[in-house]
Design a protein that fits this description.
33% of the residues lie in helices and 22% in strands. The chain has a seven-stranded mixed β-sheet with strand order 10-11-8-18-15-16-17. With 759 residues, it is an alpha+beta fold.
């Protein structure tokens, strides 16, 4: 069978932190006793490992100040368009009292000080860690920090690092004030920093003039924070730091790096599954002008040339043939595996309230079945990396959401120590979770090592689609019993889906091959696979079950993950139940939201803004809402179908994302999430046959164009709640809102995503 291949198994091995298992924690005694003792005795002292240029002074792990007074904020999170390279500096600069015009950003080196313990904890949390309580929480934090798990995703950046950056700003302010006070021979408490100048009310000094002296002072036991709301940067719509470079094109992405003597490479990998390279036609490939070298591995072949076009053209001439173990992937086989999962004994109940048996016994039940196809990432920037390997060292330029894991895997593939690998983190031209994997970095390093020249590897769009790690497909069986007064007495949700986040972890942390990770995760139920399935509504007995499925299609993180299909299942079914109960959909929801005032406020606001007509026949209006990551969102749409083309005339959203440091960036993320959710409703997926997708051109993916998008209105509800996640919360409710709107115009329920498959 002539197909395309994947990567070398050697490149998948990782020397990251050991797998966190129940045995790991419980070895040596009672609940986590062995680990608590061992880690408690393990000395640990994490010091900043920043590179400090001449004239710069580091004040902790998050901040440098140079002699000119420029404030350089160190950011460990990957900028993927979500604005994190502005938000975290804004928090620090606000507490410091800096002049925003003097604030710059620098990526953080790999260090335990920048570990995202929040995302790691959410990712690795399980029933047994809950069972051992605080010890389990502590163990997860320690595991993440000691493994330097720098992770970007899950709308965790601000929630994870807000306090750290606030405290870093406060610490620097105190040290600078102490340095100024020593010069003026006054108490440091009499000093403050305003607009980037240290002042005692009469005199001023520049930050750059004090930075070196400030580093010699000690901090008080308790950091006093700034008081008052005057001249504060937090809460302002400050301009994004990364925007000017993106406008003038000066920002460097992985494919923009240029090195002396560099060559360009393109790659072909096998079909989806356990594929190995069988043969190539090197003679034909070398006839292409510009070809410099051909690199073969067990699971892929790459061509390097003087330009990328020549490399990719030579791959066509190379005509690689792969051998696929097992039956090739097909959409029909995926659907069959998901349906078969409901009959397996591996299902597990993760949420339960009361007992459903007496509620359902002898009752009239309403049920519906829903489906969600795998959702591709389709970022504007295909997977790419630039590598230079020389003198026993390696340098890698790439965007990655997991830099420590990426470096460890690259070092292992090259046979080097991790300290010999320098990873330069770059901004990503979109990701939506795809760059949590880092195959191009490994492949580029191996190609550069063999050719002994710097190499820039860029996947073609076709390659990017074939070897995407989409959001997991899912099937759901929803059942409910309605009370005579229109409330819900019983609710049962059964979801069959792969454990996508478990797969991702197996790949990036444990070095599993994609097909191995898919098979392993398909054998275990996961709470993360039904994230978002717990409805916000107050009802009687309920239960939510996950049925794991091994579908042979590797899956991964995606914007909103399982919450995406969870909201589609829940909010579509809620609308069906409202219709069955003869109650207007808004009222049906509101009567069950007594315990969720923030979400109820969002629903009331969005319907008032959108001119809600009660979902009367022909209105074309639909409603849905969702809660995740400490935020709430309600969406109302005006939609219809013209031929086979979905037409969305209007999207209105009311969102409570807590107290945001930069409301304009929050609004940008909500707007982007709405369009992303619209894309998932219209297309963004493919059918598979013979281990390959049936199409790979963006224009054939059913994605929305400007002409398909009507007015988009976003209302950020003022809130004093802690800042919640922003980048994902608006994605899930869009598709069910559109599905509910289409019912009012067609009388037909749309129970599959995408709602209108691309032709």
């Amino acid at each position: 069978m002539r197909v395309r291949g994947y990567r070398d198994k050697t490149a998948a091995a990782s020397r990251g932190a050991p797998a966190l298992t129940r045995r790991t924690l419980l070895v040596g005694g009672g609940a986590a006793a062995g680990l608590l003792v061992a880690w408690g005795l393990w000395p640990r002292s994490y010091r900043p490992n920043l590179n400090v240029a001449p004239g710069e002074q580091a004040l902790g792990a998050f901040l440098k100040i140079d002699r000119s007074g420029q404030v350089v904020v160190i950011v460990p999170q990957t900028e993927m368009g979500q604005g994190v390279s502005t938000l975290l500096p804004q928090i620090l600069a606000d507490e410091l009292g800096a002049d925003w015009r003097t604030v710059g950003v620098q990526p953080a080196p790999i260090s335990p000080l920048y570990a995202n313990t929040l995302l790691a904890g959410e990712w690795l949390d399980s029933d047994w860690t809950r069972m051992i309580g605080g010890a389990g929480d502590w163990a997860l934090r320690e595991y993440a920090q000691r493994g330097a798990m720098m992770l970007t995703g899950g709308s965790t950046s601000v929630r994870m690092f807000h306090d750290a950056y606030r405290d870093a700003g406060a610490a620097a302010r105190i040290l600078l004030c102490k340095a100024a006070a020593a010069r003026w021979d006054i108490a440091w408490e009499a000093c403050d920093i305003q607009d980037g100048l240290v002042t005692d009310g009469q005199r001023t000094l520049r930050l750059g003039d004090l930075a070196e002296e400030a580093a010699k002072f000690d901090l008080p036991d308790i950091l006093p924070l700034r008081q008052g709301g005057d001249n504060r940067l937090a809460g302002q719509d400050l301009p994004r730091i990364d925007l000017p470079a993106k406008i003038d094109g000066s920002v460097n992405y992985a494919a923009d790096i240029r090195l002396p003597d560099m060559v360009f490479a393109s790659i072909r990998q096998g079909p989806i599954g356990d594929a190995t390279l069988k043969s190539v036609d090197e003679a034909a490939a070398r006839k292409v002008t510009g070809v410099i070298g051909i690199v073969r591995r067990d699971r892929w072949v790459a061509v390097a040339a003087t330009n990328w076009w020549a490399a990719n053209k030579a791959l066509d001439r190379l005509d690689p043939v792969f051998t696929l173990a097992g039956p090739p992937l097909s959409t029909g086989a995926v659907d069959d595996a998901l349906e078969a999962a409901f009959g397996e004994k591996r299902g597990q109940r993760f949420y339960a309230v009361g007992s459903l048996a007496p509620v359902f016994e002898g009752a009239t039940l309403y049920g519906s079945a829903y489906r969600a196809a795998p959702a591709l990432h389709l970022a504007m920037e295909p997977m790419a990396a630039t590598a230079r390997v020389h003198d026993g060292r390696a340098e890698i330029w790439m965007a990655t959401q997991a830099p420590a894991f990426a470096r460890a895997t690259i070092a292992d593939a090259l046979g080097m120590r991790e300290s010999a690998v320098m990873l330069y983190p770059l901004q990503a031209g979109g990701s939506f979770g795809r760059k949590m994997d880092f195959e191009p970095g490994v492949q580029a390093a191996l190609i550069a090592q063999e050719l002994r020249r710097p190499v820039q590897l860029l996947w073609s769009r076709l390659e990017d689609v074939i070897h995407d790690r989409p959001r997991a497909p899912a099937h759901a069986r929803m059942t409910a019993k309605l009370n005579r007064n229109g409330t819900i007495d019983g609710w049962l949700a059964k979801v069959a889906a792969p454990s996508a986040l478990a797969e991702t972890w197996a790949r990036i942390a444990d070095g599993a091959m994609p097909h191995e990770a898919a098979q392993g995760a398909g054998a275990r139920a996961s709470r993360l696979a039904v994230s978002g399935m717990m409805p916000p509504y107050k009802m009687g007995a309920l239960a939510i079950d996950h049925y794991p499925a091994a579908i042979a299609l590797p899956t991964g993180r995606w914007r909103s993950n399982a919450d995406h299909y969870a909201s589609f299942f829940n909010e579509s079914f809620i609308d069906e139940l409202a219709y069955r109960a003869g109650i207007e959909p808004l009222s049906f929801r509101m009567q069950m939201l007594g315990d969720q005032p923030r979400l109820a406020h969002c629903l009331a606001t969005v319907t008032a803004m959108g001119g809600w007509q009660g979902a009367i026949g022909g209105s074309g209006q639909g409603l849905a809402c969702h809660m995740m990551n400490g935020s709430c969102a309600a969406v109302m749409v005006q939609a219809g179908i013209s031929g086979r083309r979905l037409r969305v005339e209007r999207i209105v959203a009311a969102v409570d994302v807590g107290d945001q440091v930069n409301p304009d960036i929050a609004r940008q993320q909500i707007e982007g999430g709405l369009i992303f959710g619209l894309a998932s409703a219209m297309g963004g997926t493919v059918d598979y046959h013979g281990g390959l997708p049936m199409r790979a051109i963006l224009g054939r993916m059913g994605l929305p164009r400007l002409a398909d998008i009507g007015d988009v209105t976003v209302e950020l509800i003022r809130s004093k709640a802690p800042a919640g996640g922003v980048g994902e919360v608006a994605v899930p409710p869009v598709a069910p809102a559109i599905a509910n709107a289409l019912f009012t115009t067609t009388g037909h329920r749309f129970r599959s995503l995408p709602l209108v498959p691309a032709a």
